[in-house]
Amino acid sequence: MRIARFSIDGNVAFGAVEGEGPDGLVLDIIKGIPFAEFELSGTKVPLDKVRLLPPTLPSKVVAVGRNYAEHAKEMGNEVPEHPVTFFKPSTSVSGPGDPIPYPSFTEELSYEAELAVVIGRMCREVPRERAKDVILGYTCANDVTARDAQRREQQWARAKGFDGACPLGPWIETDLDPADLTLQCTVNGEQRQLGRTSDMLRSVEDLVVHVTEAMTLLPGDVILTGTPAGVGPLSVGDEVAVHIEGIGTLTNKVIKRG
C-alpha cells in the first residue's frame, strides 16, 4: 500500500494511493492514522486536487553517514568500523514540491539521495529478526547538506539540520523489500547519482538494531540509510529529484532563502 499525507480544503488527512502512472491516481481517505489500526473510507479524491505533504512528521530523523563504500571514498573517508549516525530535526522535514531554501551560511549546498525507513510503532532494543515488524514502510529522502559547513564545524547540526534540509516523499510504500532497489538522483533532468540499496554496508535491519540499542523510536520516526556515490552541488533554481524503484519520485526546487 502507498500511504500519502495530504492537504485539501484546509484539512489534513492520510490516504491510500490507488492507480498507476502520473495521471489518474486517486486517494482513498483513511479513517484514522496509518500508525494504528485503520480503515479505508471509500471516499476518493484525485491526487492532482490535493497538496502532498511530508508523509510523516517524525519526532526525530536519525541519519546514517558513509553507508556506501564508494561515497565514503569520494568524500576522502575510510569505511567506518561502526555506523556513523547524526540527527536531522523535525523542523528540517519538508514534503514533495516544497522548496529547499539555500542557507545564507553556506556556499556549497549538496544533494544526497537516500532510502528512508519509516517506523510504524514505538520500539526499543529491537532484535534483528523482528526489525521488519517495527517498520511501516519506505519513502524517498534527500539529505540536503551544507558541505562547507560540514567540513568546518565539528558537529553536523547546522550543516544537515537547517530548515528544508530533509525533503521526504512522495508517500510511504508499505509493501516493499528494500534489499536491492535502484536509487537515482537527477538535477535539472541530468543523472547525478545511480546506485543500489544492495551496496549499503549495513542493511535496513542492521540499522534498526543499531539505532534502537541507544534510543526509543516513535511511530513516524525516520531512519535515513545513507547515500551512494555521486553527491554534488546545488544552485538556486535547480530542480532536484530522488527516484527509488518501487516507491516513486521526490522532487524539490532550490530557492534563495528569504
UniProtKB/TrEMBL annotation:
InterPro entries: Fumarylacetoacetase-like_C, Fumarylacetoacetase_C_sf, Rv2993c-like_N. The keyword Protease does not apply. Residues 60-254 form the Fumarylacetoacetase-like C-terminal domain. Residues 1-55 form the Rv2993c-like N-terminal domain. The keyword Hydrolase applies. One of its GO terms (molecular function) is hydrolase activity. It comes from the Bacteria. SUPFAM superfamilies: FAH. Keywords: Hydrolase, Metal-binding. GO terms for biological process: carboxylic acid metabolic process. This is Fumarylacetoacetate hydrolase family protein. It comes from Streptomyces evansiae. The lineage of its organism: Bacteria, Bacillati, Actinomycetota, Actinomycetes, Kitasatosporales.
